[in-house]
Amino acid sequence: MAGKPKLHYFNGRGRMESIRWLLAAAGVEVRRTVNNPTFLCTFKGGTLMYEQVPMVEIDGMNLVETRAILRYLAAKYNLYGRNIQEQAWIDMYVEGLKDLSDMIMFFPLSLPGEKEMNLEYILERATTKFFPVYEKVSDKFYHGQDFLVGNRLSWADIQLLEVILMAEECKPSVLTGFPLLQEFKARISYIPTIQKFLQPGSQRKPPLDESSIESVKNIFKFERGMFLKNMSTIVAEY
């Protein structure tokens, strides 16, 4: 039990979800934590470097900052390429995907009158800017390669599948017109560790709904709301 990573976050997706995906794909069991509205109070005294989560306890360290955590885990579990060139490609792919995943992640926080506009914007960017890049990259699959980088599973493949599924939650037919990405989705989803993560009862969290938004506000003591307006984050009264 002591060797299992311990995740500290609220009981929702947020910044921790990509970390859960990476650990699950690597076949790593985590210590389940039950986080309640006061869990941030348990970290007073310097445990959290910037007094914010996510935090992962692993290898005797308290890791913070999402991208730092993800890179550490990817390197530790051989999901970060064989050399610096492959790492550079992985970084380019995942950083591009982060732009899209952030838009989708913050979409439930849209101003009520602008949700439809924001959804249209997300889908337009997904289908005209982001997915065409990965559809083009996926052409290499016809030349004997099954993965984005180095012909083995990497953080980039895991991140792409996560974002595809997030986009499909916004619009189930979003991959229409991207046949290679449809094949990619099916192939990566059948990797045993990922297939297990996609089953009910795993560490995977559901999309943010209205009740979850209220929980987030209570946990992080928001006095003012973070809403999405014209695809940029603004502050607005609740």
TrEMBL record:
Transmembrane segments: none annotated. Gene3D superfamilies: 1.20.1050.10, Glutaredoxin (3.40.30.10). Residues 83-208 form the GST C-terminal domain. Residues 3-81 form the GST N-terminal domain. Pfam families: GST_C_3 (PF14497), GST_N (PF02798). Keywords: Transferase. InterPro entries: Glutathione-S-Trfase_C-like, Glutathione-S-Trfase_C_sf, Glutathione_S-Trfase, Glutathione_S-Trfase_N, GST_alpha, GST_C, GST_superfamily, Thioredoxin-like_sf. Its EC number is 2.5.1.18. The keyword Isomerase does not apply. Coiled coil: none annotated. GO terms for molecular function: glutathione transferase activity. GO terms for biological process: glutathione metabolic process; xenobiotic metabolic process. Belongs to the GST superfamily. Alpha family. PANTHER family: GLUTATHIONE S-TRANSFERASE, GLUTATHIONE TRANSFERASE. This is glutathione transferase. It comes from Canis lupus dingo. The gene is LOC112641747.
